[in-house]
TrEMBL record:
Similarity annotation: Belongs to the binding-protein-dependent transport system permease family.
Species whose genome carries this gene: Cellulomonas denverensis
Record's bilayer topology term: Multi-pass membrane protein
SUPFAM superfamilies noted in UniProt: MetI-like
Protein name in the entry: Carbohydrate ABC transporter permease
GO CC terms: plasma membrane
PROSITE patterns: ABC_TM1
Pfam families on file: BPD_transp_1
Residues passing through the membrane, by range: 41-63, 108-129, 141-162, 174-197, 218-243, 275-296
Alphabetic keyword roster: Cell membrane, Membrane, Transmembrane, Transmembrane helix, Transport
Database matches in InterPro entries: BP-dep_ABC_trans_perm (IPR050901), MetI-like (IPR000515), MetI-like_sf (IPR035906)
Principal location: membrane
High-level lineage: Bacteria, Bacillati, Actinomycetota, Actinomycetes, Micrococcales
Region named Disordered: 1-33
GO biological process entries: transmembrane transport
Length: 311
């Protein structure tokens, strides 16, 4: 049991009581300040959750519908969980019961995307290196032209691109589609990689050469590892654009169909659309993008941050 020292001087007791009151008031002030600081954090968290839900729900609905028969999809009562789902839609695709086979379209898309990715990163990196490390006549005009090309909508050049491929006998040829896709992603690739290359000081290569490295060795050992995150983040953009592109492939490809064109062929005007198969096909098309993104997400994040700071 605590006791109060009544023998202490009156001034001392009043001073102690005043200090205790000030401490309690300061504590309340700190708690109120903390609450005010935390309030925006909670609000932003709620906003982030809402945006995430709106972004993820269409993907979830696509995957959910891929396990439902078409009559369940057309029902006025939505089915949010495929409790009695079926793999029939996927079986139709892999069994070749659709108008066009899935495997040839997958092979065409993979071939086009891999080659476009290699060409875009190779030529884009070399062009970015030339525009950053070297001084030559027309360099600024080259950079401005690259920026201006990105402002031209691709649909405005469809007729000229079609005529060009027709004159070169590259219509309905995989190599012709590779040329178009490479040309469409190169401006963005060059512009983005230019920022990453500019963020690596040339003095680092010079220091490596002083230590005994050759010019190529200094580039491989010093510059390239620092630019690698930028190559990965730029490669993700090139991969997604080439994988999902629809209009150019629809115009210049007839027999060799890519996956987006194959998916369109599932929607028939005469027999009606089998939405279960369409959703299953959409899910299958999305899987490679998800796998590729999960594989490079760490490097991609660091590359985007580095580009934002250095570029």
């Amino acid at each position: 049991m605590s006791t109060v020292d009544t023998t202490a001087p009156l001034g001392t007791r009043e001073s102690t009581a005043t200090d205790a009151g000030a401490a309690r008031k300061a504590g309340r002030t700190n708690r109120n300040a903390r609450a005010r600081r935390d309030r925006p954090g909670w609000f932003l968290t709620v906003c982030a959750v809402v945006v995430f839900a709106f972004s993820v729900f269409p993907v979830y609905w696509m995957v959910n519908s891929s396990f439902l028969p078409t009559n369940r999809i057309r029902s006025t009562t939505p089915t949010f969980f495929p409790v009695d789902g079926t793999f029939e839609n996927y079986r139709k695709i892999f069994a070749g019961e659709t108008n066009y086979l899935f495997t040839p379209a997958l092979r065409v898309s993979l071939t086009v995307v891999v080659v476009v990715l290699v060409f875009a990163l190779l030529f884009g990196f070399l062009a970015a290196l030339a525009a950053t490390r070297f001084r030559w006549r027309g360099r600024k005009m080259f950079i401005v032209t690259i920026l201006a090309i990105q402002m031209i909508p691709g649909e405005a050049m469809i007729i000229s691109l079609y005529s060009m491929l027709r004159d070169w006998n590259l219509l309905d040829q995989i190599f012709g589609l590779i040329l178009l896709y490479t040309a469409s992603v190169l401006p963005f690739t060059i512009w983005t990689l230019r920022g990453f290359v500019a963020g690596v000081p040339a003095e680092l290569e010079e220091a490596a050469q002083i230590d005994g490295c050759s010019k190529i060795g200094a580039f491989i050992r010093v510059t390239f590892p620092l630019v690698a995150p930028g190559l990965i983040s730029t490669g993700v953009f090139a991969f997604i654009q080439a994988w999902n592109e629809f209009v150019l492939a629809l115009v210049v490809m007839e027999g060799n169909k890519t996956l987006p064109i194959w998916l369109r062929a599932l929607q028939e005007a005469t027999k009606g659309t089998d939405w279960g198969t369409v959703m299953a096909g959409s899910t299958l098309i999305s899987i490679p993008i998800v796998i590729f993104f999960l594989f490079v997400q760490g490097r991609m994040t660091s590359g985007m941050v580095s580009g934002a700071v250095k570029g």
